[in-house]
Amino acid sequence: MDRSEALTLVEPHLTKARFEHTKRVAETATKLAKMYGHDTIQADLAAIFHDYAKNRNKDELRQWIVKESLPQHLLSYHHELWHGPVGAILVKKELGIDNEAVLSAIRWHTTGKAGMSLLDKIVFLADYIEPGRQFPGVEEVRTVADNDLNLGCWLASRNTISFLMSKNQPIYPDTFHAYNDLLLQIN
Ligand code: DGI
Ligand code: FE
Ligand code: FE
Ligand code: FE
């Protein structure tokens, strides 16, 4: 599948703003792939599909989690965490994408996890640093991302956890697992 076909498939499922975000994530992921020696076409495609389920309603996402036997504890956490795991299932079902590396990057892009692949990390970080993002501290993460992928991912994960804790939000276990595992990979 080429990138224009992929974009055409995704566009009707997303709001205008979400589609623009998606294109910026894809450009950023392509850049990171080039820098860190990953196939750029696959990184571009994974990024194009990463938020495929983002604009589905909560009830539909919930139903897929139950029906597809995803971890049921997802339902006890914020619905923001549901679109990655459900997105990976829906791009396979609805679009026929069956590349496991791509599906993994989609699945884990919000929380991260311990033992992320290179592609998982590229999409995770591209989603955080794409040029439209304005999180506090994102500029530092952008600078680091040019030199050290693991440190960039760890900073993104640390910032997200700090932000959620400052709001007294629950933190999903894989979000902590990503933080701990990335810390071990930083020299
Ligand atoms: O879908 P995007 O907005 O592009 O980005 P994303 O999929 O990374 O989602 C970001 C949101 O997810 C952001 O509001 C923080 C939230 N998030 C990430 N990890 C956790 C989390 N929310 C909770 N409650 N717990 C987490 O562990
Ligand atoms: Fe997302
Ligand atoms: Fe993210
Ligand atoms: Fe995103």
Give a short account of the largest sheet. Answer: none
CATH architecture: Orthogonal Bundle
Q: What helical percentage do the residues reach?
A: 55-70%
Structural class: mainly alpha
Helices and strands, in order, run as: HHHHHHHHHH
What's the count of strands? 0
- By CATH, the topology is Hypothetical protein af1432
The DSSP helix count reads: 10
What is the overall pLDDT average?
97
Shape by Cα distribution: globular
Identify the CATH class.
Answer: Mainly Alpha
Describe the structure.
The protein is mainly α. It has a single domain (3-134), classed as Hypothetical protein af1432 (Orthogonal Bundle). Helix content is 65%, strand content 0%. The protein has helices at 3-10, 16-36, 40-49, 58-67, 83-95, 100-107, 118-129, 138-145, 149-166, 173-185. The termini are far apart. The model has no long low-confidence stretch (mean pLDDT 97). The chain binds 2'-deoxyguanosine-5'-diphosphate and fe (iii) ion (3 copies). One fe (iii) ion binds at residues 109-110, 127-128.
Protein topology:
Elements lengths: L2 H8 L5 H21 L3 H10 L8 H10 L15 H13 L4 H8 L10 H12 L8 H8 L3 H18 L6 H13 L2
Helix pairs in contact: 1-3, 2-3, 2-7, 3-6, 3-7, 5-6, 6-7, 7-9, 8-9, 9-10
Bound molecules: 2'-deoxyguanosine-5'-diphosphate and fe (iii) ion (FE) (3 copies).
One fe (iii) ion (FE) binds next to helix 2.
Key descriptive features of the protein:
binds 2'-deoxyguanosine-5'-diphosphate, mainly alpha, Hypothetical protein af1432, 187 residues, binds fe (iii) ion, 65% helix
